[in-house]
């Protein structure tokens, strides 16, 4: 038997640390592989960690309430596997991460300052202007009465908001300047966006697409689609289908850079940006997106979007993306230039579908008609994606949409 350090697993490409919530086992307990042993929280999801080895838990290395880097050892287990003696890179990173004071979740009856709140809950509270004392009055549905994301959103929905500045639409009030501290998630987003701009040479290509056939097809089939599959058919799965098909034609858009190497990815895993109720953004990934038919793709899109907004995603559903899309048309935007999600090399934004007067070519000559048009924006890394590839790819996506089979059987 050997003593092995089990490390915190990756929980998504944009997650570098987590907060320990609760141990689900005790020191001395025997566990099997994949038995849930630890509950953690990140800025995007709360999740449980499964044991990577079978054996007896010897010692906990992290306490509830502590912030730990991904990759850091969290416990020692006695197992038949080989012992790990070398210091991991995550342990080196640990020196640069300040730990918060341990706050152990306990049953109700404690003051607000004694209770533990996950980073996600604190982020929502700060944005909504909910004080720490007010947080302590919320009835939590989590383990030991812990306040969950759903709890605080329900509290906000009832109108229990503070008076601090919020990102949503509000009336301007003249007066003194207001200083707003950036929360931890906003700081992380800032760092990653700046890092991506520094890493990748961002350029963009645009293409206007005639979505009229798709708009008509969806309008004519949405009720039958829902009746048959129990799912709403939105534009998003249609857009993802078009992108996946285009990647098959231009696989060099489905790459990653590891200087001085270019890694051509073997799978087409498409991330889709989802806006959360608290204003933040999360990007769940549809793995093997090219292998789904439209009905299954619609189910997958709806499921991921729903669970993303309810903090129910698994860590593996945030990992492995090879290309990302963002449907900015949902916010009424015509076009945009999104920032690439590293280590990918491109990202596509789909604008608002709007009626426009357009020239229509007919056998009798050109005429003017009303068409449903959409602008597609394609940002790509000019270090490895030339203008010809970037432009041809967005045109291929547009062609796939304009030649959508409107006679397909749902």
TrEMBL record:
Q: Which residues form the Peripheral subunit-binding (PSBD) domain?
A: 116-156
Q: Does the keyword Glycosyltransferase apply?
A: no
GO cellular component term, pick one: cytoplasm
> What positions belong to coiled-coil segments?
83-110
Database matches in CDD domains: lipoyl_domain
Which principal EC class is assigned to this enzyme?
transferase
Molecular function in Gene Ontology: acetyltransferase activity; lipoic acid binding
Transmembrane regions listed in the UniProt entry: none
Q: Which cofactor does it need?
A: (R)-lipoate
> Which key words are in the record?
Acyltransferase, Coiled coil, Lipoyl, Transferase
Q: Which Pfam families match?
A: 2-oxoacid_dh, Biotin_lipoyl, E3_binding
Q: Where is the Lipoyl-binding domain?
A: 3-78
Q: Known EC number(s)?
A: 2.3.1.-
Q: How does it assemble?
A: Forms a 24-polypeptide structural core with octahedral symmetry.
**What's this protein's family per the entry?**
Belongs to the 2-oxoacid dehydrogenase family.
**Protein name listed in UniProt:** Dihydrolipoamide acetyltransferase component of pyruvate dehydrogenase complex
Supply the source organism for this entry: Arcticibacterium luteifluviistationis
């Amino acid at each position: 038997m050997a003593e092995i350090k089990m490390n915190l697993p990756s929980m998504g490409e944009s997650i570098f640390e987590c907060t320990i919530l609760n141990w689900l086992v005790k020191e001395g307990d025997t566990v099997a592989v994949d038995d849930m042993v630890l509950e953690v929280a990140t800025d995007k999801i709360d999740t449980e960690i499964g044991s990577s080895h079978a054996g007896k838990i010897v010692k906990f290395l992290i306490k509830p309430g502590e912030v730990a880097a991904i990759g850091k050892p969290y416990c020692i287990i006695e197992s038949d596997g080989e012992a790990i003696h070398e210091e991991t890179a995550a342990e080196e990173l640990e020196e640069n991460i300040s730990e918060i004071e341990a706050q152990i979740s306990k049953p109700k009856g404690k003051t607000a300052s004694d209770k533990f709140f996950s980073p996600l809950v604190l982020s929502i509270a700060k944005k909504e202007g909910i004080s720490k004392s007010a947080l302590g009055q919320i009835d939590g549905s989590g383990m030991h009465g812990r306040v969950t994301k759903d709890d605080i959103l329900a509290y906000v929905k009832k109108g229990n908001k503070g008076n601090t500045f919020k990102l949503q639409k509000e009336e301007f009030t003249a007066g003194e300047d207001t200083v707003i501290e950036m929360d931890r998630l906003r700081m992380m987003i800032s760092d990653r966006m700046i890092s991506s701009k520094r890493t990748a040479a961002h350029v963009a290509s645009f293409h206007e697409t005639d979505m009229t056939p798709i708009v008509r097809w969806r309008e004519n089939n949405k009720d039958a689609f829902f009746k048959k599959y129990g799912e709403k058919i939105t534009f998003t799965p249609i857009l993802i289908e078009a992108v996946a098909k285009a990647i098959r034609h231009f696989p060099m858009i489905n790459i990653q850079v590891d200087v001085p190497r270019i890694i051509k990815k073997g799978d087409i895993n498409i991330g889709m940006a989802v806006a959360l109720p608290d204003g933040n953004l999360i990007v769940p990934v549809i793995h093997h997106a090219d292998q789904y038919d439209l009905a299954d793709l619609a189910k997958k899109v709806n499921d991921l979007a729903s669970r993303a907004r309810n903090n129910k995603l698994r860590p593996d559903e945030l990992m492995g993306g090879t290309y990302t899309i963002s449907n900015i048309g949902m916010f009424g935007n015509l076009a945009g230039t999104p920032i690439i999600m590293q280590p990918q090399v491109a990202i596509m934004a789909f604008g608002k579908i709007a009626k426009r007067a357009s020239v229509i070519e007919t056998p009798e000559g050109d005429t003017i008609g009303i068409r449903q048009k959409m602008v597609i924006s394609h940002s790509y890394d000019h270090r490895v994606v030339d203008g010809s590839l970037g432009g041809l790819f967005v045109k291929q996506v547009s062609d796939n949409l304009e030649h959508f089979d409107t006679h397909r059987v749902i």
